[in-house]
Amino acid sequence: MFRAFVAMFNRDILLAYRHRSELINPLLFFVIIISLFPLALGPESRVLSTIASGVVWVAALLAALLSLDAVFRSDFADGALEQIVLSPQPLTMLVFAKVLAHWCVTGVPLILMSPLLASMLHIKDAALGTLMLTLLLGTPVLSLVGSVGVALTVGLRRGGMLLSILVLPLYIPVLIFAAGAVNDAAAGLAVTAQLTFLGSMLMLAITLTPLAIAAALRVSLN
Amino acid sequence: MYTWIHKFGSPKHFYRIAGKVIPWTAAITVILFLYGLYGALITSPPDYQQGESARIMYIHVPAAWMSMFVYMILAVAGAIGLIWRIKIADVMAQASAPLGASFTVLALATGSLWGKPMWGTWWAWDARLTSELILLFLYLGYMGLTTAIEDKRTAARAGAILALVGVVNIPIIHYSVDWWNTLHQGATVTKFDKPSIHIDMLIPLLVMAVAFKLYYFTVVLVRARADVLFNERRSAWARDIVAKVKL
After folding, report:
1. Partner B contacted by A158 (CB < 8 A)
2. Is A104 in the B-facing interface, judged by CB distances under 8 Å?
3. How far apart are the two ends of chain A, measured CA to CA in Å?
4. Per-residue pLDDT for B137 more than 90?
5. ipTM
6. Are the C-beta atoms of B77 and B96 separated by less than 8 Å?
7. Is B5 a domain residue?
8. Alpha-helix runs per DSSP H in A69-158
9. Quick one: average pLDDT of A117-133?
10. What value does the mean pLDDT take over residues A106-131?
């Protein structure tokens, strides 16, 4: 079972590596969205630093959502997904491996990129570490919860818009706690409570969402 | 017990029994609405602080209760449909969703009408308002998903999974929104406090709540009956019924 998990993970990482150019797109999207805000709101650093945490998080949310569409799409198109569902290995493990691989190639670069963008928005230095920590805890939740929506809409032709309607309301708790933590850190307050909440949400997502993703894939494929 | 469930759960019997139940629930709904509205608009005293505008509570509060109750129905019916493959549960869930969404819209609209004279604004990012708005989004997402999938069975099962994911999320969303609100704006907006509500106000409110619930049951049965007839249009009993209808 564990070997199947590793094999699936390696396969998806390799596939992502072979399509390197596609990996850049969510990242570029993230950067462009963030750079739109100073253009819309004016370059005043005081304004930007108050909204920085929210802007970075909303942009991360949207980038995660857009990139997620690809997590099952190509496997669905070439029939590999049906083989995965039919395989004797537990589907929950296999989809978890797929989502994890997807997060490694889209979520991690986003986290690494975020300090640069946050400092372009004049975020307070004290909040920078917290921002990265919240992204580290929060983006896997986004990937896992979003994958449920992707699994439900993968068979539909125009799933993209629907996906955002299904998934974005479910992202709200992550957004609230993560952006709240960064704001508090910027104000010099303790953020352990929010980080603990994010951590427990991550644990909950890891334990429950693979079941929902597997069930949703079975529904979509029959 | 199980044979009873299977009997009632079969579309044919559901159609017949629901047809008999609907006139009764509809009649009781009308009576309760008349009694409740009479109590709400005429006999109950105006609120000592809010005056006459507090009377919107008799619509607003039951609608808000129903909006949450119907989502629970959606999830429970979805789970029943997923686990035991009872067709009626799927039909009930899909028939409930638009009703739940309308209750949510009603709660939001009446709340905003009440908020203008009381808070001085149509909308505030108060925790309860925000939760209700998110609930509306969840309903719309459910409806969007089930209408986008053509096959009815698949649509019902996909919707059931979404409703269950939503139900796990609702408490998390609710408490995080609560927490977010208290964190940010504290007590700038005082919520509708009702310390020991007066009995003359409580009775119409409860009557209205029951009336709303029965209204929901009546309408959901009517909708479910129509859906059942459509889904079973190829079976003999449904053809018989349709053949008897004179246009």
Report:
1. yes
2. no
3. 24
4. yes
5. 0.85
6. yes
7. no
8. 70-77, 80-86, 91-120, 125-153
9. 87
10. 87
Does residue B6 form part of some domain?
Answer: no
Q: Helix, strand, coil proportions of chain B in percent (round to 5)?
A: 85, 0, 15
A54: closest CA among A185, A183, A208, A152? A183
A positions 23-52 inside 8 Å of B (CB)? none
Mean pLDDT of A47-70: 88
Q: Is B1 in CB contact (< 8 Å) with chain A?
A: no
CB-neighbour burial class of residue B13 (10 A; exposed 0-12, middle 13-18, buried 19+): middle
Q: Is the pLDDT of residue B43 over 70?
A: yes
Q: What is the CATH number of the domain that holds B197?
A: 1.20.120
**Secondary structure of residue B167 in the 3-state scheme:** helix
- Residue A136 pLDDT greater than 90, yes or no: yes
pLDDT at B193: 52
Instruction: Identify the domain containing residue B62 by its residue range.
Output: 22-246
3-state secondary structure B179-229: HHHHHHCCCCCCCCCCCCCCHHHHHHHHHHHHHHHHHHHHHHHHHHHHHHH
SS3 (DSSP) at B17? helix
Put simply, the answer to whether A177 touches B141 (Cβ < 8 Å) is no
pLDDT tens-digit readout, B145-185? 998 888 888 888 999 999 999 888 888 887 877 777 655 44
Coil vs helix vs strand at B46: coil
pLDDT at B247: 64
CA A106 centroid distance within chain: 8
CB atoms within 10 A of CB B46: 12
Structural domain count of chain B: 1
Structure pTM? 0.86
Per-residue tokens: A93:
């493990």
